[in-house]
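[step 3/7] inverse_fold.run input=structure_tokens len=108
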């Protein structure tokens, strides 16, 4: 008798650690080890208005652009797609497994 995968009901709870999914020798870990963007919010705060809708986090945007440079991806849409599907890139950008890529919401 041939078995079939039963996909009628998804799993209710997941035990998944994104940090464990990214190998210790992955390129993004080496970049993150030497990168310090703690200055970004303070340095850029005067450039943002308090009356408009919230922007995309500038630290996230810099991390995303660094990935684009390292991976030679010039299209912001393509880069957002890569971050959406690659766990290591999600980890590097500070996104969780279920977080949406903020740029995708504006590019759609």
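[step 3/7] decode complete -> sequence:
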């Amino acid at each position: 008798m041939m078995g079939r995968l039963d996909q009628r009901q998804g799993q209710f709870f997941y035990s998944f650690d994104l940090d464990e999914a990214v190998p210790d020798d992955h390129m993004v870990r080496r970049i993150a080890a030497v990168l310090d963007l703690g200055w970004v919010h303070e340095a850029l705060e005067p450039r943002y208005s308090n009356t408009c809708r919230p922007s995309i986090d500038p630290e996230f945007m810099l991390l995303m652009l660094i990935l684009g440079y390292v991976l030679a991806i010039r299209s912001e849409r393509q880069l957002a797609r890569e971050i959406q599907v690659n766990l290591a890139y999600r980890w590097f950008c500070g996104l969780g497994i279920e977080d949406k890529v903020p740029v995708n919401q504006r590019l759609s």
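[step 4/7] annotate
Helices lie at 18-21, 27-34, 40-44, 58-71, 76-85, 87-93, 102-107.
The chain has one domain: 20-107.
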